[in-house]
Amino acid sequence: MLKLSGYLKPVNQVGNEERLLKVTSDKNLPGTLRSEYCLINPDQGGPIGYGLILFSGKSAENIPMDSSSPMMTHEGWLDYLEDGDIIRVNFKDGRVRVLFRASANSNSILLTERCDHFCLMCSQPPKKHDDTALIDEEFQLLELIPASTKSLGFTGGEPTLYGDQLVELVAHAKRQLPGTALDLLTNGKAFSDESYAQKLALVDHPDLVVAVPLYSASPAVHNYVVQCAGAFDPTIRGILNLKRYRQQVQLRVVLHRETIPTLIELCEFIVENLRYVDQVALMGLETVGFARANLDTLWIDPYEYRDILSEACDMLDTYGIPTNIFNLQKCVVNQQDWKYQVPSISDWKNDFLDVCQTCDERSNCGGLFSSNVLYKHSDYISPIVN
Asked: Which of 51, 148, 294, 319 has its CA 20 to 30 A from that of 222?
């Protein structure tokens, strides 16, 4: 598991500002460009004009002090940084966060930690503090991300709490990164306002998918899972409005003890009422955040619900609804469902058990969340021998 945030130690006077910087290993960049870049591990100090020169702890012992560029060190945990990555550095307290990794299999941009749901298994528990400065930063971040980036995710918290600012950010993404697919993770309720769904549609993003969680056809169950009274109806209206304006919609169902009992009923509801959605994603549980706190209530071994999962996939597939299985290992689902499985876990938190090393399907398996390796995973994970 990669560490994406932590603290740096100053080597010289670095100032008090907070900045976004692109990462480079090129110590010969044109002088006019250097202030926008963090130079990593030069052979020796001295290059002038860079926004930051960053040394690994291994190479920081003999840093010459003759550079006018701010210089800081880390203890080796950022050795994975490479050209094209983007970091946020607070020079006042030394805090750094990696916002974008050029070689990652996916990059998600956290827009806010605020949310109007408190889902039982939320992996990013909501906070009430004012973090609206984040969205201003994301406008700048989109201008730094390479145009060759295949996909990005906007996530939270609940991004639609920004209202029209979110629509403006999607439009900015279209201008800056017209060839980049965009996933917007939202509870969907804000789009129960038809005019808001229309505003998003008018952006006319070429490849936007709005991912909306729907946990049961029973309003009571859905509302319980998201811990918000009355959430079901505006969520459904939001989905309907998004499709009315021809937006791509992915329905997401996190699989656990509260959602498995009504999964087939939910699939029946989808094929009868929401058949025009663009995809359904059936997702294994990530044991962090609220999910870890509620593990005794939520955990059910995926192997135990594998036949229910097969029935759900078969029903959706029969009606022509594209279906994916996220976050589950090949050895805990029925082989007939392997065709639905997608490697979906971000590489920075993707892991395998020791027992997986001899599996013939390891290269085709999405692995486990690092948190599941630490806290809870299926008791039936075992090597597949072809």
From this structure: 319
Q: What is this structure's pTM?
A: 0.94
The answer to whether 146 and 22 have CB atoms below 8 angstroms apart is: no
What is the rounded average pLDDT of the residues 103-121?
A: 96
Alpha-carbon span 325 to 148, nearest angstrom? 27
Closest CA to 89 of 35, 142, 45, 31: 35
Residue 115: band (very low, low, confident or very high) from pLDDT cuts 50, 70, 90: very high
Residue ranges of domains in the chain: 5-100, 108-374
Cα of 2 vs its chain's centroid, Å: 14
CATH code linked to domain 108-374: 3.20.20.70
Percent of the residues in the chain that have a pLDDT greater than 90, as a whole number: 89
CA distances from 102 to 105, 145, 228, 275 (A): 9, 8, 37, 36
Tokens at 247, concatenated: 């937006």
Distances (CA, A) of 189 to 101, 123, 209, 221: 31, 19, 16, 17
CA distance 280 to 267: 9
User: Measured between alpha carbons, how far is 14 from 306 in angstroms, rounded to an integer?
Assistant: 55
Q: Supply the DSSP string of 300-351, one letter for each residue.
A: --GGGGHHHHHHHHHHHHHTT--EEEES--GGGS-GGGGGGEE--S-GGGEE
Alpha-carbon gap, residue 300 to 282, rounded angstroms? 15
Residues 382, 67: Cα–Cα separation, whole Å: 54
User: Is the CATH number 3.50.30.10 carried by domain 5-100?
Assistant: yes
152 in the Ramachandran plot: left (φ > 0), alpha (ψ -120 to 50) or beta? Answer: beta
The SS3 call for residue 110 is strand
Q: Which two tokens stand for residue 220?
A: 């009571």
Give the model's confidence band at 68: pLDDT under 50 very low, under 70 low, under 90 confident, else very high: confident
Rounded to a whole number of angstroms, the distance between the first and last alpha carbons of the chain is: 29
**Beta strands 248-254 and 279-283, pairing class:** parallel
CA 31 – CA 249 distance, rounded (Å): 46
Mean of pLDDT values over 269-294: 97
